[in-house]
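Annotated sample (chain length 228).
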Amino acid sequence: MALYAMGDLHLSLNSNKSMEVFGPAWDNYTERIRVSLSELTADDVLVLAGDTSWGMSLEESEADFRFLEQFPCKKYILKGNHDYWWATAAKFKAFCEKNGFITMELLHNNCFFYGDYAICGTRGWFIEEEQKPHNAKVLNRELMRLETSLAAAGEKPILCFLHYPPLYQGYRCEEVLNLLRKYQVKQCCYGHLHGPTIKRRIEGTWEKTELSLISGDYLGFIPKKICD
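Output written by the structure step:
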């Protein structure tokens, strides 16, 4: 029994957007995901930190979620910037019930518990979004979602999962970092960084929070073990 995490699977079984065009790090990535997730059991939990499927709707993503459902581990899924299939929690629940998917739930305006830990998270915020005119509105919405999740942890030590990095070379999201500090987050894992941008990652201890990059290509599509 263990808690694992990985982001940026970018599954494309029904949308013809294979990531293999981006170089050797992505070669045969769907099969590599299948092999690594086959090692997880029904007692394990896997957090998927955004950009799970390229599908433009839940219907177009059905093959990707069916692929994930074959692995018996519990899966908590948060939103990434390319999760165009994302709908309301109620619609996702109905979609799962319709298709007989029983292992997946959204990590969105909520938190889950694993042993002594609280699993919290949201998409987060990133500098590339700041060029859009609605930046303040979107940022504030993400901060509200993150704080709702963190507050739901109560007194439990917090493991936080974001899609966007809150801190990397040349960028820091002070608002997100302030929430990590306020709620004394034990560990924060993030995805989104690929290829050359991986070199700009920041990992290790920031104040009292351990930072880790968990994008799939960085991990070699082997989920990172967070704790037993």
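Annotation: The chain has six helices and 13 strands.
Annotation: The longest helix spans residues 135-151.
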